[in-house]
Specification:
By secondary structure, the chain is an alpha/beta fold. It has one domain: SGNH hydrolase (Rossmann fold), CATH 3.40.50. It is built from 7 helices and 8 strands. The strands form 2 sheets. Strands 3-1-4-5-6 form a 5-stranded parallel β-sheet, sandwiched between helices. Helix 4 links the parallel strand 4 and strand 5. The N and C termini lie far apart (49 Å).
């Protein structure tokens, strides 16, 4: 009788363990517009990847691996991608957003849109798929750069086109954050759109005592708004993880 009880106990334990579903991890890789920012020193800056987890329930883990100043080339060259791929498991997602720093002139970061930039994106996609995970391409968010007529300028050029073309060519889900953020910023206009970015008056932030007029990086409010746009894109694509978005 005792042996029977012990056997039954182990059978139940194995059944329970077998029925435990592994949580899905969404890895976000990219640059400073996506990256985690320090919370000390009264720092108001945030990356939109930093704000993404609040939109999901406990079935999804957001692991934000984006880093300031990285391009598609330097993220891989510094071994940051290797750290992601070593932990990636079947069913996970990789959100890929580069472009802001790929046009920088230094050799560690610079890529050409239709050659090296494209080849790095292809590598991220194929290596993600090889692990049984799901790549998702994202275009870079717009910079808040209005011309004299109040029209928002394009500062990313062919880097955007390559991402869009590659998504179609390789049948990869695309969240066009450039278009989504452009629409949001244009609706707000030149003045009101400052509240999305790191525009600070002098004397209100210890880290920026002289104030800030930054049209690239996001404050907490702006990062949350961009994260919401990414979540909208997830819903529109009907990705499997959309079922875990909080109602």
């Amino acid at each position: 009788m005792r042996k029977y009880k012990i056997s039954l106990f182990f059978i139940l334990m194995v059944a329970l363990m077998g029925g435990t579903k592994a949580k899905i991890t969404v890895y976000t890789i990219g640059d400073s517009t996506m990256a985690n920012k320090e919370l000390q020193k009264n720092n108001p800056e945030r990356g939109w990847g930093q704000m993404l987890s609040q939109f999901f329930n406990d079935e999804v883990i957001v692991d934000n691996r984006a880093k300031n100043g990285r391009s598609s080339k330097s993220f891989m060259g510094e071994g940051l991608w290797g750290e992601v791929i070593n932990n990636l498991k079947e069913g996970d997602y990789v959100f890929i957003q580069f472009g802001h720093n790929d046009s920088k002139p230094d050799s560690a970061r610079h890529t050409e849109p239709r050659t090296t930039y494209r080849s790095y994106l292809v590598r991220y996609i194929k290596e993600t798929q090889a692990k049984g995970a799901h790549p998702v391409l994202l275009t870079s968010i717009v910079r808040r750069k209005f011309d004299t007529t109040g029209k928002l300028e394009d500062t990313h050029g062919e880097y955007l086109l390559v991402v869009r073309e590659l998504a179609k060519e390789m049948n990869i889900p695309l969240i066009d954050l450039e278009q989504k953020s452009r629409k949001l910023i244009e609706q707000l206009g030149p003045e009101a759109s400052k509240k999305l970015f790191m525009w600070l008056e002098p004397g209100i932030c210890d880290k920026y005592p002289n104030g800030s007029k930054d049209d690239t990086h996001l404050c907490e409010y702006g990062a949350t708004q961009i994260a919401q746009l990414a979540v909208d894109g997830i819903r529109e694509l009907n990705l499997d993880i959309s079922q875990y978005i909080k109602k």
